[in-house]
Write a structure and sequence with these properties.
Layout lengths: L2 E6 L7 H14 L3 E5 L2 H7 L2 E4 L26 H13 L4 E6 L1 H12 L4 E5 L15 H22 L2 E6 L6 H9 L4 E3 L7 H13 L5 E6 L5 H11 L4 E5 L11 H19 L5 E6 L2 E6 H6 L6 H10 L2
Parallel strand pairs: 1-2, 1-4, 4-5, 5-10, 6-8, 6-9, 7-8
Antiparallel strand pairs: 2-3, 10-11
Helix pairs in contact: 1-9, 2-3, 5-6, 6-11
The chain binds adenosine-5'-diphosphate.
The site of adenosine-5'-diphosphate (ADP) has 17 residues, from α4.
Length: about 325
Protein backbone atom coordinates (compact mmCIF):
# COMPACT_ATOMS: atom_id res chain seq x y z
CA UNK A 1 0.00 0.00 0.00
CA UNK A 2 1.57 3.28 -1.12
CA UNK A 3 -1.15 5.85 -0.41
CA UNK A 4 -3.70 6.00 2.41
CA UNK A 5 -6.34 8.41 3.71
CA UNK A 6 -7.46 9.46 7.18
CA UNK A 7 -10.66 11.13 8.42
CA UNK A 8 -12.41 11.95 11.68
CA UNK A 9 -16.16 11.38 11.88
CA UNK A 10 -19.19 11.66 14.16
CA UNK A 11 -18.89 13.28 17.59
CA UNK A 12 -15.49 14.90 18.08
CA UNK A 13 -13.28 13.91 20.99
CA UNK A 14 -10.11 15.33 22.53
CA UNK A 15 -7.14 13.33 21.27
CA UNK A 16 -8.43 12.93 17.71
CA UNK A 17 -5.70 15.35 16.62
CA UNK A 18 -3.04 13.25 18.28
CA UNK A 19 -4.42 10.23 16.40
CA UNK A 20 -4.34 12.06 13.05
CA UNK A 21 -0.78 13.14 13.79
CA UNK A 22 0.23 9.56 14.56
CA UNK A 23 -1.37 8.26 11.35
CA UNK A 24 0.33 10.90 9.20
CA UNK A 25 3.76 10.59 10.76
CA UNK A 26 3.78 6.80 11.00
CA UNK A 27 2.72 6.49 7.36
CA UNK A 28 5.38 8.93 6.15
CA UNK A 29 7.95 7.16 8.32
CA UNK A 30 7.01 3.92 6.53
CA UNK A 31 7.27 5.56 3.10
CA UNK A 32 3.50 5.73 2.55
CA UNK A 33 1.77 8.91 1.33
CA UNK A 34 -1.16 10.20 3.41
CA UNK A 35 -4.19 12.24 2.47
CA UNK A 36 -6.40 14.02 5.00
CA UNK A 37 -10.14 14.01 4.30
CA UNK A 38 -11.92 17.01 5.79
CA UNK A 39 -15.41 16.86 7.42
CA UNK A 40 -15.67 13.12 7.72
CA UNK A 41 -17.74 11.13 5.22
CA UNK A 42 -19.29 14.38 3.95
CA UNK A 43 -15.91 15.58 2.73
CA UNK A 44 -15.18 12.12 1.36
CA UNK A 45 -18.21 12.34 -0.91
CA UNK A 46 -17.48 15.91 -2.01
CA UNK A 47 -13.74 15.37 -2.38
CA UNK A 48 -12.38 17.66 0.34
CA UNK A 49 -9.09 15.81 0.34
CA UNK A 50 -5.55 17.15 0.79
CA UNK A 51 -2.13 15.60 0.87
CA UNK A 52 -0.58 15.74 4.33
CA UNK A 53 3.08 16.31 5.09
CA UNK A 54 5.00 15.89 8.34
CA UNK A 55 4.46 19.59 9.06
CA UNK A 56 0.70 19.44 8.37
CA UNK A 57 0.21 17.86 11.78
CA UNK A 58 2.70 19.99 13.68
CA UNK A 59 1.48 21.81 16.78
CA UNK A 60 -1.79 19.87 17.10
CA UNK A 61 -0.97 17.11 19.61
CA UNK A 62 -2.16 19.27 22.53
CA UNK A 63 -5.27 20.66 20.87
CA UNK A 64 -8.84 19.46 21.45
CA UNK A 65 -11.32 19.00 18.61
CA UNK A 66 -10.09 17.78 15.26
CA UNK A 67 -8.13 19.72 12.65
CA UNK A 68 -9.75 17.54 9.96
CA UNK A 69 -13.12 18.64 11.32
CA UNK A 70 -16.02 16.25 11.65
CA UNK A 71 -19.53 15.89 10.28
CA UNK A 72 -22.57 13.70 10.23
CA UNK A 73 -23.59 12.66 6.73
CA UNK A 74 -26.89 10.99 5.88
CA UNK A 75 -25.94 10.47 2.24
CA UNK A 76 -23.07 8.23 3.26
CA UNK A 77 -25.48 5.74 4.85
CA UNK A 78 -26.63 4.90 1.29
CA UNK A 79 -24.70 2.66 -1.07
CA UNK A 80 -24.64 5.46 -3.68
CA UNK A 81 -22.96 7.77 -1.16
CA UNK A 82 -20.41 5.12 -0.26
CA UNK A 83 -19.60 4.46 -3.93
CA UNK A 84 -19.11 8.19 -4.51
CA UNK A 85 -16.64 8.19 -1.61
CA UNK A 86 -14.72 5.25 -3.05
CA UNK A 87 -14.60 6.99 -6.43
CA UNK A 88 -13.02 10.08 -4.83
CA UNK A 89 -10.39 7.94 -3.09
CA UNK A 90 -9.58 5.88 -6.17
CA UNK A 91 -9.25 9.02 -8.30
CA UNK A 92 -6.33 10.03 -6.07
CA UNK A 93 -4.81 6.55 -6.00
CA UNK A 94 -5.67 6.09 -2.31
CA UNK A 95 -5.80 2.40 -1.41
CA UNK A 96 -6.84 2.30 2.24
CA UNK A 97 -8.66 4.51 4.77
CA UNK A 98 -8.34 5.09 8.50
CA UNK A 99 -11.56 6.25 10.18
CA UNK A 100 -11.33 7.82 13.63
CA UNK A 101 -14.75 7.99 15.28
CA UNK A 102 -17.53 6.23 17.13
CA UNK A 103 -19.64 3.21 16.27
CA UNK A 104 -21.61 5.04 13.57
CA UNK A 105 -18.32 5.87 11.88
CA UNK A 106 -17.27 2.22 12.27
CA UNK A 107 -20.42 1.20 10.37
CA UNK A 108 -19.38 3.47 7.52
CA UNK A 109 -15.89 1.91 7.55
CA UNK A 110 -17.44 -1.55 7.52
CA UNK A 111 -19.63 -0.63 4.55
CA UNK A 112 -16.63 0.62 2.55
CA UNK A 113 -14.65 -2.52 3.38
CA UNK A 114 -17.56 -4.67 2.18
CA UNK A 115 -17.51 -2.72 -1.08
CA UNK A 116 -13.87 -3.72 -1.48
CA UNK A 117 -12.17 -0.66 -0.01
CA UNK A 118 -10.09 -1.59 3.08
CA UNK A 119 -10.67 0.54 6.18
CA UNK A 120 -9.43 0.52 9.77
CA UNK A 121 -11.55 1.89 12.64
CA UNK A 122 -9.86 3.83 15.44
CA UNK A 123 -12.08 4.42 18.51
CA UNK A 124 -12.55 8.13 19.13
CA UNK A 125 -15.39 9.20 21.42
CA UNK A 126 -15.71 10.52 24.96
CA UNK A 127 -18.41 7.92 25.70
CA UNK A 128 -16.05 4.93 25.96
CA UNK A 129 -18.78 2.83 24.36
CA UNK A 130 -16.90 1.20 21.48
CA UNK A 131 -16.46 -2.56 21.55
CA UNK A 132 -13.02 -4.07 21.05
CA UNK A 133 -11.16 -1.70 23.36
CA UNK A 134 -10.99 -1.00 27.08
CA UNK A 135 -10.73 2.74 26.42
CA UNK A 136 -11.60 5.15 23.63
CA UNK A 137 -9.66 8.27 22.68
CA UNK A 138 -11.17 11.25 24.52
CA UNK A 139 -12.67 9.39 27.48
CA UNK A 140 -9.89 10.24 29.92
CA UNK A 141 -9.94 13.93 29.02
CA UNK A 142 -13.73 14.14 29.36
CA UNK A 143 -13.51 12.29 32.67
CA UNK A 144 -11.02 14.83 34.01
CA UNK A 145 -13.23 17.68 32.81
CA UNK A 146 -16.21 16.22 34.65
CA UNK A 147 -14.21 15.64 37.82
CA UNK A 148 -12.96 19.20 37.76
CA UNK A 149 -16.59 20.36 37.54
CA UNK A 150 -17.72 18.03 40.34
CA UNK A 151 -14.94 19.27 42.62
CA UNK A 152 -16.05 22.84 42.07
CA UNK A 153 -19.72 21.99 42.52
CA UNK A 154 -18.86 20.20 45.76
CA UNK A 155 -17.36 23.43 47.17
CA UNK A 156 -20.53 25.39 46.62
CA UNK A 157 -22.81 22.46 47.50
CA UNK A 158 -21.27 22.08 50.94
CA UNK A 159 -21.30 25.82 51.62
CA UNK A 160 -25.04 25.97 51.05
CA UNK A 161 -26.07 22.48 52.19
CA UNK A 162 -27.50 21.57 48.83
CA UNK A 163 -28.11 18.50 46.79
CA UNK A 164 -26.60 18.83 43.35
CA UNK A 165 -27.69 16.85 40.32
CA UNK A 166 -24.95 16.82 37.67
CA UNK A 167 -25.94 15.68 34.18
CA UNK A 168 -23.11 14.21 32.14
CA UNK A 169 -22.94 12.86 28.59
CA UNK A 170 -23.66 9.20 27.87
CA UNK A 171 -26.79 8.24 25.93
CA UNK A 172 -26.29 4.50 25.90
CA UNK A 173 -23.24 3.96 28.07
CA UNK A 174 -22.74 4.95 31.69
CA UNK A 175 -18.94 4.81 31.67
CA UNK A 176 -18.39 8.55 31.96
CA UNK A 177 -20.99 8.90 34.73
CA UNK A 178 -19.63 5.88 36.59
CA UNK A 179 -15.94 6.75 36.43
CA UNK A 180 -16.59 10.43 37.18
CA UNK A 181 -18.96 9.52 40.00
CA UNK A 182 -16.52 7.14 41.63
CA UNK A 183 -13.47 9.35 41.28
CA UNK A 184 -15.44 12.49 42.14
CA UNK A 185 -16.93 10.92 45.27
CA UNK A 186 -20.57 11.25 44.20
CA UNK A 187 -23.22 9.79 46.51
CA UNK A 188 -25.37 8.38 43.73
CA UNK A 189 -24.66 7.50 40.11
CA UNK A 190 -27.45 6.87 37.62
CA UNK A 191 -26.51 5.03 34.43
CA UNK A 192 -28.58 3.79 31.49
CA UNK A 193 -27.47 0.19 32.09
CA UNK A 194 -29.20 -0.09 35.48
CA UNK A 195 -32.74 1.16 36.22
CA UNK A 196 -32.71 3.32 39.34
CA UNK A 197 -34.88 2.97 42.40
CA UNK A 198 -36.03 6.31 43.81
CA UNK A 199 -36.77 4.88 47.27
CA UNK A 200 -33.23 3.68 47.79
CA UNK A 201 -31.84 7.00 46.54
CA UNK A 202 -34.07 8.87 49.00
CA UNK A 203 -33.05 6.50 51.75
CA UNK A 204 -29.39 7.08 51.11
CA UNK A 205 -29.81 10.87 51.03
CA UNK A 206 -31.76 10.85 54.31
CA UNK A 207 -29.23 8.61 56.05
CA UNK A 208 -26.42 10.90 54.90
CA UNK A 209 -28.35 13.90 56.17
CA UNK A 210 -28.94 12.23 59.55
CA UNK A 211 -25.26 11.63 60.06
CA UNK A 212 -24.53 15.28 59.34
CA UNK A 213 -23.62 15.32 55.66
CA UNK A 214 -23.97 18.84 54.37
CA UNK A 215 -24.29 18.09 50.70
CA UNK A 216 -24.93 15.36 48.18
CA UNK A 217 -23.86 14.98 44.59
CA UNK A 218 -25.89 12.85 42.22
CA UNK A 219 -24.49 12.09 38.76
CA UNK A 220 -27.04 11.39 36.02
CA UNK A 221 -26.02 10.09 32.61
CA UNK A 222 -28.13 11.84 29.97
CA UNK A 223 -29.38 8.46 28.72
CA UNK A 224 -31.28 7.93 31.99
CA UNK A 225 -33.15 11.24 31.85
CA UNK A 226 -32.24 14.91 31.95
CA UNK A 227 -30.77 16.30 35.14
CA UNK A 228 -33.70 18.72 35.40
CA UNK A 229 -36.24 15.93 35.10
CA UNK A 230 -34.53 13.91 37.80
CA UNK A 231 -34.21 16.93 40.13
CA UNK A 232 -37.94 17.59 39.73
CA UNK A 233 -38.76 14.01 40.72
CA UNK A 234 -36.42 14.24 43.69
CA UNK A 235 -37.89 17.53 44.87
CA UNK A 236 -41.40 16.10 44.64
CA UNK A 237 -40.42 13.37 47.07
CA UNK A 238 -37.96 15.07 49.44
CA UNK A 239 -37.43 18.43 51.13
CA UNK A 240 -33.87 18.77 49.87
CA UNK A 241 -32.79 22.05 48.30
CA UNK A 242 -31.74 20.78 44.88
CA UNK A 243 -29.76 22.42 42.08
CA UNK A 244 -28.90 21.12 38.65
CA UNK A 245 -25.75 21.44 36.57
CA UNK A 246 -25.82 20.29 32.96
CA UNK A 247 -22.22 20.02 31.84
CA UNK A 248 -23.05 19.72 28.13
CA UNK A 249 -20.56 20.21 25.35
CA UNK A 250 -17.71 21.41 27.55
CA UNK A 251 -17.17 17.67 28.14
CA UNK A 252 -16.11 17.29 24.49
CA UNK A 253 -13.51 20.04 24.53
CA UNK A 254 -10.17 20.83 26.05
CA UNK A 255 -6.57 19.85 25.64
CA UNK A 256 -6.25 16.04 25.69
CA UNK A 257 -4.69 14.46 28.76
CA UNK A 258 -1.38 12.62 28.48
CA UNK A 259 -3.31 9.35 28.71
CA UNK A 260 -5.41 10.25 25.66
CA UNK A 261 -2.40 11.49 23.70
CA UNK A 262 -0.58 8.22 24.39
CA UNK A 263 -3.59 6.12 23.45
CA UNK A 264 -4.21 8.12 20.27
CA UNK A 265 -0.58 7.91 19.22
CA UNK A 266 -0.41 4.14 19.76
CA UNK A 267 -3.74 3.37 18.09
CA UNK A 268 -3.14 5.70 15.14
CA UNK A 269 0.25 4.17 14.42
CA UNK A 270 -1.12 0.62 14.77
CA UNK A 271 -3.89 1.39 12.28
CA UNK A 272 -1.27 2.35 9.69
CA UNK A 273 0.66 -0.88 10.35
CA UNK A 274 -2.48 -2.96 9.77
CA UNK A 275 -3.16 -1.31 6.41
CA UNK A 276 0.45 -1.82 5.37
CA UNK A 277 0.20 -5.47 6.43
CA UNK A 278 -2.81 -5.76 4.11
CA UNK A 279 -5.25 -6.29 7.00
CA UNK A 280 -8.22 -4.09 6.10
CA UNK A 281 -11.64 -4.25 7.73
CA UNK A 282 -10.34 -4.21 11.28
CA UNK A 283 -10.62 -2.06 14.39
CA UNK A 284 -7.77 -1.21 16.72
CA UNK A 285 -8.05 -1.07 20.47
CA UNK A 286 -6.29 -1.50 23.76
CA UNK A 287 -6.95 -4.30 26.24
CA UNK A 288 -4.95 -4.67 29.45
CA UNK A 289 -2.56 -2.06 28.00
CA UNK A 290 -1.81 -4.23 24.94
CA UNK A 291 -2.75 -3.21 21.42
CA UNK A 292 -5.39 -5.50 19.90
CA UNK A 293 -7.35 -5.61 16.67
CA UNK A 294 -10.64 -7.19 15.67
CA UNK A 295 -12.60 -7.83 12.52
CA UNK A 296 -14.82 -4.75 12.23
CA UNK A 297 -18.06 -6.75 11.83
CA UNK A 298 -17.23 -8.88 14.86
CA UNK A 299 -16.35 -5.79 16.89
CA UNK A 300 -19.64 -4.11 15.98
CA UNK A 301 -21.54 -7.22 17.03
CA UNK A 302 -19.89 -7.33 20.47
CA UNK A 303 -21.93 -5.68 23.23
CA UNK A 304 -20.22 -2.86 25.12
CA UNK A 305 -19.73 -4.06 28.69
CA UNK A 306 -19.83 -1.74 31.65
CA UNK A 307 -17.18 -2.72 34.20
CA UNK A 308 -19.42 -4.29 36.84
CA UNK A 309 -16.64 -4.48 39.47
CA UNK A 310 -16.27 -0.72 39.27
CA UNK A 311 -20.03 -0.27 39.45
CA UNK A 312 -20.20 -2.42 42.59
CA UNK A 313 -17.28 -0.55 44.12
CA UNK A 314 -18.98 2.79 43.46
CA UNK A 315 -21.96 1.58 45.48
CA UNK A 316 -19.78 0.24 48.30
CA UNK A 317 -17.82 3.47 48.65
CA UNK A 318 -20.80 5.81 48.60
CA UNK A 319 -22.57 4.40 51.66
P1 LIG B 1 -20.25 8.32 15.81
O1 LIG B 1 -19.25 7.82 14.83
O2 LIG B 1 -19.67 9.29 16.79
O3 LIG B 1 -21.03 7.19 16.45
P2 LIG B 1 -22.55 8.87 14.10
O4 LIG B 1 -23.36 7.76 14.63
O5 LIG B 1 -23.23 10.17 13.85
O6 LIG B 1 -21.30 9.23 15.02
O7 LIG B 1 -21.90 8.37 12.73
C1 LIG B 1 -21.05 9.22 11.99
C2 LIG B 1 -21.33 9.04 10.52
O8 LIG B 1 -21.04 7.69 10.11
C3 LIG B 1 -22.77 9.26 10.08
O9 LIG B 1 -23.11 10.61 9.92
C4 LIG B 1 -22.82 8.51 8.77
O10 LIG B 1 -22.27 9.30 7.73
C5 LIG B 1 -21.87 7.34 9.02
N1 LIG B 1 -22.67 6.14 9.35
C6 LIG B 1 -23.38 5.89 10.47
N2 LIG B 1 -24.04 4.70 10.38
C7 LIG B 1 -23.76 4.21 9.17
C8 LIG B 1 -24.14 3.01 8.47
N3 LIG B 1 -24.95 2.09 9.01
N4 LIG B 1 -23.63 2.81 7.23
C9 LIG B 1 -22.81 3.73 6.67
N5 LIG B 1 -22.43 4.85 7.27
C10 LIG B 1 -22.88 5.10 8.50
Amino acid sequence: MKRIGVLTSGGDAPGMNAAVRAVVRKAIYQGVEVYGIYQGYQGLITGQIEKMEVGSVGDIIHRGGTMLRSARCQEFVTKEGQLKGIQQLKALGIEGLIVIGGDGSYRGAKALTELGFPCIGVPGTIDNDIPGTDFTIGFDTALNTVIDAIDKIRDTASSHERTFVVEVMGRNAGDLALWAGLSGGAETILIPEDPFDMDSIKDRLLKGHERGKRHSIIIVAEGVMSGNEFAKKLEEETQFDTRVSVLGHMQRGGSPTAVDRMLASRLGARAVELLIEGKGGRTVGIEKNQLVDYDISEALAMPHQLDLDIYRLSKELSI
